[in-house]
Design a protein that fits this description.
- The complex is a heterodimer of chains A (344) and B (295).
- Chain A is α/β, with parallel strands linked by helices and 344 residues long.
- Chain A folds into two domains: 129 residues, D-Maltodextrin-Binding Protein, domain 2, CATH 3.40.190; 160 residues, Periplasmic binding protein-like II (D-Maltodextrin-Binding Protein, domain 2, 3-Layer(aba) Sandwich).
- Chain A has 13 helices and eleven strands.
- In chain A, strands 1, 2, 3, 4, 5, 6, 7, 8, 9, 10 and 11 form an eleven-stranded mixed sheet that branches.
- In chain A, helix 2 packs antiparallel against helix 10 and helix 5 packs across helix 6.
- The N and C termini of chain A lie far apart (66 Å).
- In chain A, 43% of the residues are buried.
- Chain B has 295 residues and is an all-alpha fold.
- Chain B has a single domain, classed as MetI-like fold.
- Chains A and B meet through strand 6, helix 7 and helix 13 of A and helix 4, helix 8 and helix 12 of B.
Chain lengths: 344, 295
């Protein structure tokens, strides 16, 4: 408040400036050295390992030299809601578009976030059928999953936004990309009796599967690769018809460091970074970056082909009237012969 | 000691069980209520009310307010959504069962700890509280490893309603034990001796002498176990498998509502849980008062 405080502040600022100048001189590239900036990256948990490497690479470039990062990882929906309720974020990276749409509605992300060259999508993946090592039950197609006695693991689509990719992959594959809705819904209705566990997140499902439950697991390709890289004994098959998973990213409107955040975002689409993503199991959105190759399944379709997230969320995942609510309800009523110490 | 100087807060309406001297007419109590509280009481009361408001009452009020935001019809509709209703049924049923089992087993454990001397009794006494210290998600993982598909004990409870009950039993164990234990320690054994010497059987002594003394503690412990159970998420989320309509507990259902951006629905289901908990706690309180008056 008083004069002393101000003096101290001025001195501190001078010292800081001096320090930065000294650093800049030391590294020998004087001119572009601005003040140090901290960007906060709020992301879903899966790409954490990739971002660690990417941030290091970014800080090695002229644009990222003075940029520090505060990173936060968690469930995609949880992270999105945290930002909606005030968690400071400069860059948000989620597993599916509705989590960004939530922030657009809240006025935190510009409405044209997906108008750029890559439509705001930084990485891709596909839904795959993960199996035990060597695929002992020879489960390769959607129909194979309906074989008698086959147990399938997929997260609860009501608690895990990401699990909706799995449901919609199965639906799209059997409905000729949404053209034959009845066939798709019929398939889901015959698939879910095979689903014996519905964990609350994709990671928990992986845990359950690796722990020995189930013959097959609907999973993201990148998660399966991640599990293999971590020494888990599983194989996976990419079905001929499956959905393209698209992971969105955006800079927030209220970011105090628009230029730096934008620079980081642009950096993510460079071949170097896309290659890092590829090495972590994601399909790059920029072609020809090297690294592992990902075969494109012949019947690949997108969320847009099926009608887009807002329509699909309403049609399939509305807790009262959605297709999945109906399927789960029928199942619950038909098979509630298991020991029931509590209900009723 | 401020507590003995009757306050003017909401608690004043309740009859103070200890301080009322039996042979005084009730008029005296009324007069004491009207007396201005001392500075100490006022300060204590103010602190308590402020603290309670900030930490408990306001958050609860916001949940209830959120639930009622779209009107009572919407509230009821949200609670009656088939999956929520099924989750509520399972949760309340399992919690009631858990409270009952705790009522019996907790009392037995407390009895053993207080009355029986065996090597390692102190160790067991310390172990009782450990379920509270373990993060519930870890409890879930451990239970899954022990009683899941790959159970070394060949007991597979995973992804069944029985698994939910076991998880709840684990996390609620300390409540009844810890409420009954001190009462049992304080219990005057002369009363029991007197009963025996007058020819009462062990069963009669237990039923007429010991049980009435323990009942209030047992009930409040069971009430705590019940309310803790209906809100449980971490320990049940892994072992239940979250199959809607079968093993999905209310807390997981609420998470689903939040994930679907249906905050009002989430608040409605939570409010339903709060209302049941509130009703049960009041009921237990009434039973205790009735028993105390009768005793």
């Amino acid at each position: 408040m008083g004069r002393t405080t101000r003096t101290v502040a001025v001195l501190a600022a001078l010292a800081l400036a001096g320090g930065i100048a000294a650093c800049a001189n030391g590294s020998g590239s004087g001119s572009s050295a601005g003040p140090e900036v901290t960007l906060s990256l709020v992301a879903y948990s899966t790409p954490q390992a990739a971002y660690k490497k990417i941030i290091k690479a970014f800080q090695g470039t002229p644009a990222g030299k003075n940029v520090k990062f505060k990173e936060s990882y968690g469930g995609s929906g949880d992270q999105s809601r945290a930002v909606e309720s005030g968690l400071k974020a400069d860059i948000v990276a989620f597993s599916l578009e509705p989590d960004i749409t939530r922030l657009v509605k809240a006025g935190l992300v510009a409405g044209d976030w997906n108008s750029g060259e890559h439509n705001g999508i930084v990485t891709d993946s596909v839904v795959v059928i993960a199996t035990r090592k060597g695929n002992p039950k020879n489960l390769k197609t959607w129909d194979d999953l309906l074989g008698s006695g086959v147990q399938v693991i997929t997260p609860n689509p009501f608690t895990s936004g990401g699990a909706r990719w799995n449901v919609l992959a199965a639906y799209g594959a059997k409905s000729k990309n949404g053209a034959d809705k009845v066939a798709g819904v019929t398939y889901l209705a015959s698939l879910f009796p095979h689903v014996s566990v519905q964990d609350n997140s994709a990671r928990a499902s992986l845990q359950t599967f690796v722990g020995g439950k189930g013959d097959a697991m609907l999973a993201y390709e990148n998660d399966s690769i991640f599990a293999q890289q971590n020494g888990q004994a599983l194989d996976y098959t990419i079905p001929d018809d499956t959905i393209l998973i698209e992971n969105p990213i955006a800079v927030t409107k209220n970011s105090a460091h628009q230029a730096e955040a934008k620079a980081f975002l642009d950096f993510l689409f460079t071949p170097t970074v896309q290659k890092i993503f590829a090495e972590n199991g994601y399909r790059p959105v920029v072609q020809g970056v090297g690294g592992p190759s990902f075969p494109t399944p012949p019947g690949l379709f997108t969320i847009k082909d099926l009608g887009g997230w807002s329509t699909l969320n309403k049609d399939f995942f509305d807790p009262a009237a959605g297709v999945m609510a109906g399927i789960e309800q029928k199942l619950g009523v038909a098979t509630s012969t298991s020991p029931s110490p509590g209900s009723k | 000691m401020a507590a003995t100087q009757t306050s003017t807060g909401p608690g004043a309406a309740a009859p103070g069980p200890v301080e009322a001297v039996p042979d005084r007419p009730p008029a005296r109590r009324t007069r004491r209520v009207r007396r201005r509280p001392s500075v100490g009481t006022g300060l204590g009361l103010g602190t308590a009310v402020l603290y309670l408001s900030l930490i408990v009452l306001l958050p609860l009020a916001v949940v209830v307010w959120r639930a009622g935001k779209d009107g009572p019809d919407y509230f009821w509709q949200a609670v009656r959504t088939p999956d929520s209703w099924a989750a509520l049924e399972l949760t309340l049923g399992a919690s009631a069962l858990v409270a009952l089992v705790n009522l019996v087993m907790g009392t037995i454990i407390a009895w053993v700890l207080v009355r029986d001397r065996f090597p390692g009794v102190a160790v067991v006494d310390v172990l009782i509280d450990l379920p509270f210290a373990l993060p519930t998600i870890v409890a879930g993982l451990v239970l899954l490893a022990l009683y899941g598909a790959t159970s070394p004990l060949h007991i597979n409870l995973a992804y069944t309603q029985a698994g939910v009950v076991v998880a709840l039993l684990f996390v609620t164990l300390p409540f009844v034990v810890r409420t009954v234990q001190p009462v049992l320690l304080e219990l005057d054994r002369d009363m029991e001796q007197a009963a025996y010497s007058l020819g009462a059987s062990q069963w009669v002594t237990f039923r007429r002498i010991i049980l009435p003394n323990l009942a209030p503690a047992m009930l409040s412990g069971a009430g705590l176990a019940f309310t803790r159970s209906i809100a449980e998420y971490g320990s049940t989320v892994l072992i239940s498998g979250n199959l809607p309509f079968k093993t999905e507990v209310a807390a997981v259902n609420v998470v689903g509502r939040i994930e679907s951006d249906n905050v009002t629905g989430a608040a409605a289901v939570s409010t339903a849980l709060l209302l049941v908990a509130f009703a049960v706690l009041i009921l237990l309180n009434l039973v205790q008062r009735w028993a105390a008056r009768r005793g």
